[in-house]
């Protein structure tokens, strides 16, 4: 879990993904369209993939990817991020991290 917490604080917006996950890609594109350049961690390319997945689940992710952290805090996965975006609460949250 220490590795995940360290990785989630590397940048203002951090997304844990898998390279083959279409929902992860959709979340990445959303943030890029909002003008945010998130740090992407493709966990399937990490030798500790299983441990990272378990740590993300322990932190409260319903599914391990995509897992979005803003300001070092877990926001959630696709459903939470899209709900925030539709309710106009995502942009104010990422405003400090716009490119």
TrEMBL record:
Domain Glutaredoxin per the UniProt entry, residue ranges: 13-75
The record's keywords, sorted A to Z, are: Cytoplasm, Redox-active center
Location in the cell: Cytoplasm
The record's listing under PROSITE patterns reads: GLUTAREDOXIN_2
GO-annotated cellular components: cytoplasm
Primary residence: cytoplasm
The record ties this protein, via InterPro entries, to:
GlrX-like_pln_2, Glutaredoxin
> Can you tell me which family this protein belongs to?
Belongs to the glutaredoxin family. CC-type subfamily.
- Which NCBIfam families does the annotation name? GlrX-like_plant
This chain belongs to which protein, by name?
A: Thioredoxin-like superfamily
Instruction: Name its species.
Output: Arabidopsis suecica (Swedish thale-cress)
